[in-house]
């Protein structure tokens, strides 16, 4: 589903390479975890996948279902089925969460040549999915992410993910800022979305999220390269020994 | 339409014209300087004293206030200056160097010129510099474009009696604050100008104290700061006394520099402090604070123009006013962001506490923005002391008068404490306390 | 926000030239001679069959005007207006005050139909729920061509007619109130208007009456080189309520046209007037050629206790806008509100805001202003809040936010706050920002195109004000805003 080939990238005018040859293949149904110390390039990778301005690919390619995504706009990537759960979800004053959800969903459906969802059908879907995530109607009426607590923001991200039904979910530090109860709710939400034709990439610094979202494959990213790949036991090993063993390796 | 056709001059304006004519011979300066003085005066003469129909002086009508123009003050002797200096409060025990300007002239013998030289700071007499000045007066009398139309600065340029040029050498970190004290030992109008230069990477704390103890006559001072790249300036100014005082701060900030400045207008019959700050180099920041404390029929005006000429600079403006009796407070602040000054961050806040029924406050915080990638905001509030807070304090057993004083102090301290330097903060807070206790 | 998608579709379907009201109606008109002098004023007054005192009033204004100079303090610039090159009166021929719709020139009806303004009562009745009916006074160039629902309003005791008709039918009311809020000598343009105003709307709501429907005036400038000078006067007696809407369009012409209106509102004890404007005069082409100069004086007088006046404006049109709908809060406990969205694009210049003058005790006011600048436009908010010495417990809250789209435009905020009473509490907040890259990226990541994302974020930005508009106008306003911003992205 996702194939990253020898990806090199830098950010803005700063020529320093942040990604220095990342290779990664994710097949449908798989959950991959990418772990790494601060500054290893994890968030950069997620922004590059989603196509953020200023994040420039200098070498390599990203194939999504066999086609290169590099020339696609962020909204085209979204319509194609890529979803990024942001580490710091953005606040948009004056735009009710509900309005945003509907606008996004219909924009994607339209881009894919599908009919727009009627309001009743949409409401039904939102209500069901919101309830599973302990999101109240009141919260949906509030402006998107404005005044939301850390936990509420992350739950709102997962709600969007479940509504938009992407093919590939990229979650950037979804566990940051969550207490254990919120973490469980979010993880359950994510697990409900696991399916044989959907893939996930979970980016995290700590192992604890992976207790709840159990990965098939774990990668260690250090200094812009994947330096080790293993099963879920690799995460446990990292938890015990830290990243020290890997920090030097990529140099 | 704005330019009112003026057929009649006020008597003060007529007096100023004859004052300038009469003083021409005795005013310092080379030919180039005299030429500038003449240009400045004729530009002033065209406009006259600023009044309420001039937008920048809408709330501070100098023409109405100044019924007649005082004669220029004569130079005072060292002994006179010394006793004037002893009579003023300023910074108490704070360890500092002093530069004394009495009756508009630098008093070299009372100033720590030698000690400053040892620190890498040269202090020279403005009049000596003006006497030698070549084309355009060597920049000694420069006025930035944002202040070019100001009649009071024109008047200063025309009539300046003296002052100092203080130069902090490249890379110099001055170990103690340098206080420039302006005193008056005899009555008469004082036109003073100081130029303070901070070289590249220099660091200095400057204290300017305007202590006018003469009941009459006007003060017109220009302080011209030129701040080099990577330099750091901390500045505290106190304008007090009973005269009519217009004080202009010109500040030109180089790249990656840092400025922190606070200005007090307290207890002056009619005080206007106007600051014109220009960012000329990128990645600099300036925190500018102002305090107004007025009572009786006093009038205090803080006017500020911040010109973001280049990208990536940050400015913070915070002004507080406490107004009692029949006094009037004015705040006018303008943040200008020029085209291409992207990534500018400017935040301005003005707050006023009105302590009596007849106190009044006028606020005009402006934004003038020509670049899109900016974050600018301003806020303004005016009102009385918060009744809930007052009640809370009184419920804890604090008498009303004291509770009010506490709250006023807390209100002002918010800005003062931003100065961080402990000695300066405590000296300034001391002056606030003194001012407040007079009230009881 | 159902308008979003529709907005986008509409924006997309429009060509480079987004102004859809730019057509000209071919109709013969009756004009006063070009230029301005006392004879022209006599001509206007005679055409309208006015009483003698009205003519005197006009002449006095004219003489006053001759001594005045154009204001220059606003942040707008334009070439000198040649006041003697204008026509001050133009009326479609053969309409000496039509008695019914059947007498109205079909060409005119077609014009309003094309503008989306229904003038046939039966059609309105057929299509719309009774509670949403709107009575319309249609003003074409200098005169009112028709006023709908007059009979039904009459039953409720509400007078809604053109000001010319009011001068004939209710001279005592007009004489009592005209110029009582905006004095003849108020300012250059108001004084000019006093001398030459040709028509406008008159509303009188008697004591205790809640006006049964929305009232609306639709202004249309058609004729070339014609100044439009309407005069609107609305009086709400004790306990009365009225909601009034105005809309404006003009054809696309290469030269600038002058529009200098005066609106006066009077609210007595416990009365409430809600005045909404959607201003969409022709803004000029993309090179800044042509467009309306919109120099308008609007002022409301909260004369009675507990009275309330609320201004809501959506300003998207005009080459230059110069207007400050204001409230004089004279009555104790009275309240003034100002909600504004000002969108400028192309070469438009806007200098607009409000004045809230607190005179009475316990008066309150609220100002919400949202400015959006794009293209090469300049957009200034200018506002005054003042509390008089006797305005005990006056309250004001002001929020003005500016949004910049593109780097060639300007956004400026010039607020004046003058408190002469210590119990007055004023709060003012202002921000200027652009649509953040992060917000854009976030929306795009969720599948919105760049245009859709801008429309969504802008709609969020102006929401506080849109909510103040009557429903029918709210949808229209959102569309207008998006259309005005067309071409501002990328």
Which properties best describe this structure?
heterotrimer, A: 251 residues, alpha/beta, Rossmann fold, six-stranded mixed β-sheet, four-stranded antiparallel β-sheet, 10 helices, 12 strands, C: 490 residues, eleven-stranded mixed β-sheet, ten-stranded mixed β-sheet, 13 helices, 34% strand, disordered N terminus
Task: Show the helix and strand layout.
The complex is a heterotrimer of chains A (251), B (440) and C (490).
Chain A: E1 2-11, E2 17-26, E3 31-35, H1 42-50, E4 55-64, E5 67-68, H2 74-80, E6 82-85, E7 92-96, H3 97-111, H4 119-132, H5 137-141, E8 143-144, H6 150-164, E9 168-172, H7 180-192, E10 199-204, H8 208-212, E11 217-222, E12 225-230, H9 233-241, H10 244-247
Parallel strand pairs in A: 3-10, 3-11, 6-9, 9-10
Antiparallel strand pairs in A: 1-2, 1-4, 4-5, 7-8, 11-12
Helix pairs in contact in A: 2-3, 6-7
Chain B: H1 11-23, H2 31-47, H3 62-65, H4 78-86, E1 97-102, E2 105-106, H5 113-119, E3 121-125, H6 126-132, H7 151-159, E4 164-168, E5 178-183, E6 190-198, E7 203-212, E8 218-227, E9 232-241, E10 244-253, E11 258-266, E12 270-279, E13 285-294, E14 299-308, E15 314-323, E16 328-337, E17 345-354, E18 360-369, E19 375-383, H8 387-395, H9 400-416, H10 422-439
Parallel strand pairs in B: 1-5, 4-6, 5-7, 6-8, 7-9, 8-10, 9-11, 10-12, 11-13, 12-14, 13-15, 14-16, 15-17, 16-18, 17-19
Antiparallel strand pairs in B: 1-2, 3-4
Helix pairs in contact in B: 2-7, 8-9, 9-10
Chain C: H1 3-13, E1 29-31, H2 38-47, H3 52-66, E2 90-92, H4 106-114, H5 121-127, E3 134-140, E4 143-147, H6 150-156, E5 159-162, H7 163-169, H8 171-177, H9 188-196, E6 201-205, E7 214-220, E8 231-236, E9 241-249, E10 256-259, E11 262-267, E12 272-279, E13 291-302, E14 308-315, E15 320-323, E16 326-329, E17 335-344, E18 349-358, E19 364-373, E20 378-387, E21 395-404, E22 410-419, E23 425-434, H10 437-445, H11 450-461, H12 463-466, H13 471-484
Helix pairs in contact in C: 1-11, 1-13, 2-3, 3-9, 7-8, 10-11
